[in-house]
Amino acid sequence: MEIPALDVQLKTLPDSPGVYQYFDKNGKILYVGKAKNLKKRVTSYFTKRHDSHRIGVMVKKIHEIRHIVVSSETDALLLENNLIKKLQPRFNVMLKDDKTYPWICIKNERFPRVFPTRRLVKDGSEYYGPFTSFKTVNTLLDLIKGLYKLRTCNYDLAEDKIRENKFKVCLEYHLGNCMGPCEGYQGEAEYNRNIDHIRQIVKGNFKDSLSQFREQMQEHAANMEFEDAQRIKNKIEVLENYQSRSTVVNPKINNVDVFSVISDEGYGYVNFLQLMHGSIIRSHTIEMKKKLDETDEELLELGITEIRQRFNSKSPEIYVPFKVDAGDEVKVTVPKLGDKRKIVELSERNAKYYRQERFKQMKIVDPDRHVNRVMAQMKEDLRLSVEPRHIECFDNSNIQGTNPVAACVVFKNGKPSKKDYRKFNIKTVEGPNDFASMEEVVFRRYKRLLNEGEELPQLIIVDGGKGQLGSGVKALETLGLRGKIAIVGIAKRLEELFYPGDPIPLYLDKRSETLKIIQQLRDEAHRFGITFHRNKRSKSALNTELESIKGIGEKTVVELLKSFRSLKRVKEASEKSLADVVGSAKAKIVYDYYHSESSE
């Protein structure tokens, strides 16, 4: 796929958190960065003046922008760290060393210790994280130590050594921070139950721990120990607001390829995430043109083969959203829960964003291709004989039958054509009768187009259900246009589409572009009609007693009300005050009118 120009790439970036990567014209990586909002952050490189010479040089070399969308700013921070260490970009100065984010380790030993670390040692120990700061780790460990009494010594507490009294309890035991397993004062089963609770805490399952904290807080409060109660309350708030897990990194996910697919009527978009040692080291999405109306399963199988060959991937396992045939040498996993499922969802999110960006780029670079695709899709979805290049939508507007009006909005090639919008005052209908009003405006609209020899639409949409649709059809029959122009009605409640003579409505996919364009048409007709109706209602509201005075016109009424703010003040004003606003002749007419009224 040809790389779009930089300005096109910038215009189509998402407003989501993620990591961005800059590449030069030779495909060599220049820089990796994180962003809370990718569009704002990346655009700032090209719109701001840079004080740093290094950044200025880098911006001149940028040829391509790639990005990975993640769930949160924390995930972006962690992923940025992983990619910088893996790719070693030339213009990244920070994070290139071997320093990494902290983890919480539950040691693989009898009576396990729980402690923070920056190093992952493959000795069977459990590691949870990573965390973005040691402050977070220490807060969590303080909570754990406040709830559970754990040993901190590094003794080898083998059963025979404890039996032979090899160890003596230390100061931690006397301070009440340890139960003394080294002398057999605490059993292994009880200690391991505490470790199981700690596992739940570091996994983010705080339900049991929170209930115990609340019991402690209430107990302290009942004993008038308010400082201790406040301390426990602070811990509860930290736990409730704390997000312990990252979907980006999990040490148990190692040497795995993740694939997902998003498709539309013409193309499939396959995303690939490569994970090594629990970290994402590569993200790539390809666009595949459908040739034989392939299913998502077929597209994903083709994409997996192509991507693994392109990147020479030898990963023995792949994660996918549904079962596919990837050959006998690869284990295929369809995750349902947990971090494995989250990483598949992350891949799907990136495929979705890539598809949206391609649509945006297409609109900018090749608008005709986008319009042709949408029109072809609308023709298929709405079961039309021709593409609906010219669509008109009608909507009635009135309040309990007062000031009835109607609006007609026009879309050409899927976009509003505002110069062709028309508004109608209802002339032949009295009272609130939507059906008769619809028949009147449809008849008037197309009778005029026929008389003037203007172009007729390929599709008419009426806002309403079967009744309004029937009225529109009746007007077309009177004009001899029934069958020559397609007409449908859209009901507001469930977005049902009704066709003449068909009692069963059509339901479109809520995400389809066809439904979105029809909704836009309906909403635009409603907006245009309501605006016209409000203006008409406001104008009629100005028909005050002043306008009934002979010799006083609308302009004079507006001037008087603008100056005096109410009819009462106009009545009470002196002739001189009135003359200052509208002149002596009209002031005398108004003054005499009200004074003669009052004298009578």
UniProtKB/TrEMBL annotation:
InterPro entries linked to this entry: GIY-YIG_endonuc (IPR000305), GIY-YIG_endonuc_sf (IPR035901), GIY-YIG_UvrC_Cho (IPR047296), RuvA_2-like (IPR010994), UVR_dom (IPR001943), UVR_dom_sf (IPR036876), UvrABC_protein_C (IPR050066), UvrC (IPR004791)
Q: List, for all copies, the residue spans of the domain called UVR.
A: 207-242
- Record Pfam families: GIY-YIG, HHH_5, UVR, UvrC_RNaseH, UvrC_RNaseH_dom
- Protein's cellular compartments: Cytoplasm
- Which Gene Ontology cellular component annotation is one that this UniProt entry carries? cytoplasm
Q: What is its main location?
A: cytoplasm
User: Entry's Gene3D superfamilies?
Assistant: 5' to 3' exonuclease, C-terminal subdomain, GIY-YIG endonuclease, UVR domain, UvrC, RNAse H endonuclease domain
| Any Gene Ontology biological process | nucleotide-excision repair
Give all residue intervals belonging to the UvrC family homology region profile domain.
275-471
Keyword ATP-binding assigned: no
Q: Where is the GIY-YIG domain?
A: 15-93
User: Keywords in UniProt for this one?
Assistant: Cytoplasm, DNA damage, DNA excision, DNA repair, Excision nuclease, SOS response
Instruction: State one molecular function term (GO).
Output: DNA binding
**SMART domains in the cross-refs:** GIYc
The record's function comment reads: The UvrABC repair system catalyzes the recognition and processing of DNA lesions. UvrC both incises the 5' and 3' sides of the lesion. The N-terminal half is responsible for the 3' incision and the C-terminal half is responsible for the 5' incision.
Can you tell me which family this protein belongs to?
A: Belongs to the UvrC family.
HAMAP family per the UniProt record, alphabetical: UvrC (MF_00203)
Subunit description: Interacts with UvrB in an incision complex.
Cited NCBIfam families: uvrC (TIGR00194)
Under what name is this protein listed? UvrABC system protein C
